[in-house]
Design goal:
Number of domains: 2
Low-confidence stretches: 62-67
Number of helices: 7
Order of helices and strands: HHHHHEHEHE
């Protein structure tokens, strides 16, 4: 990473190559999930190019366990992402009005967007509607988790722009999930 931040050619080791494959290449739906997430996060704000910034974040992650921060996922989510090498975003972030309808798909055990965080966002955004999968412990449920209860309302919202008539609560994982 240090070589790349200095504009020098760098070959990724096996771990970085696997991460880049997940973020950027098609396979098991990874590209559809990872590339979109990277584009959104990297398009919102410029990211630091100095690997030391990320190293300090990673080193702090396991030392600050709390209800809001998982000591296992912290080093992964605080690590350097491809958008650290992109140009600064060309547009200011989009301002979303509080009366804009939004469907918020989430899982109660999401390690990145905690249930408490999703619930607080819904409370702060009065025109939103939650679609919550109870007992699921992953981030990114629509189209990747395989829960029809959550996929149907999200797909309908993306197709029509209309929110479900009521909050959606899905029963969660079945045996073998």
């Amino acid at each position: 990473m240090d070589q790349a931040t200095r504009g020098r050619r760098a070959e990724p080791d096996a771990d970085l190559a696997n991460t880049l494959d997940f973020l950027l290449k098609d396979g098991d739906g990874a590209s559809a999930y990872g590339s979109v997430q990277t584009a959104i996060l990297g398009g919102d704000a410029s990211a630091p190019r100095d690997p030391e910034v990320y190293w300090q974040d990673v080193r702090r992650s396991p030392c600050t366990p709390s209800a809001d921060r998982d000591p296992l996922i912290g080093p992964f989510t605080d690590d350097m992402a491809p958008c650290a090498f992109w140009d600064r975003p060309r547009e200011r972030p989009t301002a979303v009005r509080p009366d804009t309808p939004a469907l918020m798909a989430n899982a109660t055990g999401d390690p990145r967007t905690t249930c408490a965080g999703a619930t607080a966002m819904h409370a702060a955004w009065p025109s939103s509607r939650p679609a919550m999968v109870a007992g699921a412990d992953r981030h990114g449920i629509h189209g990747a988790y395989g829960d029809d209860c959550a996929d149907r309302p999200v797909s309908a919202y993306l197709r029509t722009g209309r929110l479900p008539a009521a909050d959606v609560t899905c029963p969660g994982p079945r045996p073998g999930r």
